Amino acid sequence: MAKKELLKVEGLKQYFPIKGGFLGRTVNHVKAVDDISFTIYEGETVSIVGESGCGKSTTGRAILRLEEPTDGSVVFQGTDITKIPKGEMRKFRKDLQIIFQDPYASINPRQTVASVLSEAMHIQNVLPPDQRRARIEQLLETVGLRPYQADRYPHEFSGGQRQRIGIARALSVDPKLIICDEAVSALDVSIQAQVLNLLEELQDEYGLTYLFISHDLGVVRHISDRIIVMYLGKIVEIADKNSLFENPQHPYTKALLSAIPVPDPDAVKSRIVLKGDVPSPIDPPQGCRFHTRCPFATDKCRTEEPVLRTSDIMKDTHEAACHYMEEISAGKMTPNY
Amino acid sequence: MSTVQTEKNPSTMKKSNPRSEAFKTFMKRLLKNKAAVVGGIVILFIILVGIFGPFLVKTDPNAQNILNKLQPPSKEHWFGTDNFGRDIFSRIVNGTKLTLTVGFLSVFIGGIIGVVLGIVSGYYGGAIDTITMRLMDILLAFPGILLALAIVSVLGGSLVNVIIAVGIFSVPAFARIVRGSTLQVKKLEYIDAVRALGASDIRIIFKHILPNIMSPIIVQATMRIATAILTASGLAFLGLGAQPPDPEWGAMLSDGRTYMHNAGHMVLIPGMMIVVVVLAFNIFGDGLRDALDPKMKQ
């Protein structure tokens, strides 16, 4: 079955200017997201993982135009939504929704749950006003809250419940794609599981597509179909879940996966510990951005930027951006720890 | 078991509104601050005097009685009489309305303009922000009274022009505070959430930002009333505000200057009134700020 493209991101760049000097000239840029491309198909869950500052949240925000992208295109169902006027963008906002990380900051403290949800429906003109109340109560039940809680204020709910309100708000306009920006990171582990299960149930019920942004590999492994690994504003590896976890190719991905704790005290730990810190995105390293910390780096890595490519040693949908993945996996290169 | 039952029966649940609840804790903290309570009572009293005083004090504030001039305080004239034999008590009571009108109206005008400018600069940023805030810096660079003086000199000395002048010089203080608060609130995720839903800027500003930055605005307005009263009195003292025979306190103070040595009450009484009212607003404003500041929670 051919999968239908829902969202296609191409050459997306998001640079934030750094102002300096007396007249506030732009002296440099933070290259938060630097030329990334990927496609999301209908009904799947794609995750973006990476450490903090790698540009994963910025990617989500740029897709929604919460921050105007510097360059590149975001094609949603055939329309490039980065090129249309703001007014027209409002129509697309119905289809693209977001769930935020901080359940305490993502709801206006002065609005009741009902007014949060009815405002969303009012803005997008989803239902006639007299039917909205019934829909609100139904939405609350869908996300696991009680209908009578509609007239309560956010401070009367726990973090997990607030996250459910955030989900209900996103659902209230019948979206097609929901971007979950670290949607469960701020919750307790037991609540995380509940919310993740809820997201999965909603996906089955409404045929939703998720772009799941997280730094938690355990969560990502649980929920994703495909995974994108980002490092310093670039995609270093992109693959379906099983290929990525079982056959990672990029040295960064391998290091990342080796950091997952194994619940077995006798397991042999083969932890790859990276040296140093993530370089500054203001002046990213030449060539491969990972070369400053890569145990296999050579002179070629320092000058020539690797592109995402597939290879004989992996599935054809699996791509990584490393010059030496064949050599590394054949054991021809020795790591320089 | 009883809790389960109340959960199941929503009609018996008592609804708690964050506003009413926040208001309760706010009142508790405000009442703990004795100075603020005194300030508040003084303000309340002065407002009542301003509204009802003229009906209770029968003496005409402008009725002259030259034979009875410069009398010290006595049973008939509680605050004595001035150089035209006018009853100072009646003038003070009738002047309260003038003083308060100038204070409240000018702060209202300055507040509205300042809040709009501040929200717009904070929300949109960029060139709009830079230009507005540099203009505010220019206004702030002048000492307040000098700026008001310049404006009144251009517009001409009348009470209305004093209100406009004092209003204008209140604008930058509001604009700055509101801009800062707007910057703080606009980066919260609930603003992004409504933007992602496609809300218009007007909706975001009035429905989501303004209600969440009200406390600093209220505090600033209270403190500004004190400054406004002081500036208006200062202008009147210099002969640029209320025109005779209006019983404006600053003008009365100015009139009394000539007779300071033999009729000290002509200066002392309006001067004291200005001090008391300004102090009351300042202390009350301080108390409000402390009570509204979440970081002060004990």
TrEMBL record, chain A:
Name the domain of life. Answer: Bacteria
Residues forming the ABC transporter domain are: 7-257
A single GO molecular function, which one? ATP binding
Query: Membrane-spanning regions, if any?
Result: none
- Record carries keyword Metal-binding: no
Which keywords appear in this protein's UniProt record, sorted alphabetically? Answer: ATP-binding, Nucleotide-binding, Transport
Q: State one Pfam family annotation.
A: ABC_tran
Q: Which PANTHER family match?
A: D,D-DIPEPTIDE TRANSPORT ATP-BINDING PROTEIN DDPF-RELATED, TRANSPORT ATP-BINDING PROTEIN
| Family the entry assigns | Belongs to the ABC transporter superfamily.
> Can you say what this protein is called?
Dipeptide ABC transporter ATP-binding protein
Name the species this protein comes from. Solibacillus merdavium
